[in-house]
């Protein structure tokens, strides 16, 4: 089992002919992802050449729009490698086409654009699940990758991972590679994102093959505190947490646009305390977090 993504998803790539789109389409195919085409309005009607996981040559069609790609291929998933200035239009196009899953990798999208797109999706009935922006996407090891996460870190297993940070996603997958993961999701570190910790934790709770959940947060905002409330009220599976930013100076933006602390609000310590009050074991380093997860799993 997995959440959001499995080997049966049919994936299109918005921006498939660009540098990032080309590189990561190749890597997604290598990971076994069922990529069925791409979108670039200026190159509609052409094809791009790639190699699939079995080493076979494939010609992927390029379409003029997401709707056209979905109609022709039956795609149910899109990943957007589109520059920040054009990302809002790409997201709106995917929402209008009602594609079930959209992963937005792009970093640097203006917050007002993300907020507009999020509100637009809600107004349209939230028929599209958006992951990102500014994220590494989602991977179900051994089945499919829609994102930029290396597919050779770990195999399938019982751990569900949701993280604000791409790099910490990869590190936690490596730390717990002996156990393996059902699905690992990088939700992104921007102030406005499509899928939250709570969304992913709810899905992991419902997935029978996920036995333990690891959530990685960071300073800024109150997403982790809200997740703690949700976990306390709704989650029966063990949850282990890590909050990046214990040594961050107050009032300074740290890497992600959403990672800024004002006074005591949004500090790593405050988040740690909220999570621990909800029964979540919280590590002070990624390695300690992995050790706590392993100990809890072995005790199941």
TrEMBL record:
NCBIfam families: PRK05678.1, sucCoAalpha
Associated pathway: Carbohydrate metabolism; tricarboxylic acid cycle; succinate from succinyl-CoA (ligase route): step 1/1
Protein name: Succinate--CoA ligase [ADP-forming] subunit alpha
Secreted found in the keyword field: no
Keyword field: Ligase, Nucleotide-binding, Tricarboxylic acid cycle
Binding site for substrate: 170
Protein purpose: Succinyl-CoA synthetase functions in the citric acid cycle (TCA), coupling the hydrolysis of succinyl-CoA to the synthesis of either ATP or GTP and thus represents the only step of substrate-level phosphorylation in the TCA. The alpha subunit of the enzyme binds the substrates coenzyme A and phosphate, while succinate binding and nucleotide specificity is provided by the beta subunit.
Active-site residue numbers: 256
InterPro entries: Cit_synth/succinyl-CoA_lig_AS, Citrt_syn/SCS-alpha_CS, CoA-bd, CoA_lig_alpha, NAD(P)-bd_dom_sf, SUCC_ACL_C, Succinyl-CoA_synth-like
GO terms for MF: succinate-CoA ligase (ADP-forming) activity
Source organism phylogeny: Bacteria, Bacillati, Actinomycetota, Actinomycetes, Mycobacteriales
A Pfam family of this chain: Ligase_CoA
Start and end residues of each CoA-binding domain: 4-109
Family membership noted in the UniProt record: Belongs to the succinate/malate CoA ligase alpha subunit family.
PANTHER family, A to Z: SUCCINATE--COA LIGASE [ADP_GDP-FORMING] SUBUNIT ALPHA, MITOCHONDRIAL, SUCCINYL-COA LIGASE SUBUNIT ALPHA
Its EC number(s): 6.2.1.5
Assembly information from the UniProt record: Heterotetramer of two alpha and two beta subunits.
Catalytic activity, as annotated: GTP + succinate + CoA = succinyl-CoA + GDP + phosphate; succinate + ATP + CoA = succinyl-CoA + ADP + phosphate
Residues binding CoA, per UniProt: 17-20, 43, 105-107
């Amino acid at each position: 089992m997995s959440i959001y993504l499995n080997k049966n998803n049919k994936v299109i790539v918005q921006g498939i002919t660009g540098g990032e789109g080309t590189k990561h389409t190749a890597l997604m195919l290598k990971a076994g992802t069922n990529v069925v085409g791409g979108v670039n309005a200026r190159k509609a009607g052409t094809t791009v050449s790639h190699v699939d996981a079995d080493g076979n040559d494939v010609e992927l069609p390029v379409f003029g729009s997401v709707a056209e790609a979905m109609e022709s291929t039956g795609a149910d998933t899109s990943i957007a490698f589109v520059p920040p200035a054009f990302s809002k239009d790409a997201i709106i196009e995917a929402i209008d086409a009602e594609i079930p899953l959209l992963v937005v990798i792009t970093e640097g999208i203006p917050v007002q654009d993300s907020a507009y797109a999020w509100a637009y999706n809600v107004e349209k009935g939230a028929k599209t699940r958006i992951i990102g922006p500014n994220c590494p996407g989602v991977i179900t090891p051994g089945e499919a990758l829609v994102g930029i996460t290396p597919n050779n870190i770990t195999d399938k297993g019982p751990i569900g991972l949701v993280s604000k940070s791409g790099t910490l996603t990869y590190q936690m997958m490596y730390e717990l590679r002996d156990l393996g993961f059902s699905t690992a999701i990088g939700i992104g570190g921007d102030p406005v994102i499509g899928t939250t910790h709570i969304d992913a934790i709810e899905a992991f709770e419902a997935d029978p093959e996920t036995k333990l959940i690891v959530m990685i947060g960071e300073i800024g905002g109150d997403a982790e505190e809200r997740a703690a409330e949700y976990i306390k009220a709704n989650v029966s599976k063990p949850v282990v947490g890590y909050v990046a930013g214990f040594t961050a100076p107050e009032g300074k933006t740290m890497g992600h646009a959403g990672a800024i602390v004002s006074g005591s609000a949004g500090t790593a310590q405050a988040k740690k305390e909220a999570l621990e009050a909800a029964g979540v074991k919280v590590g002070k380093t990624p390695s300690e977090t992995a050790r706590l997860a392993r100990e809890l799993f072995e005790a199941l």
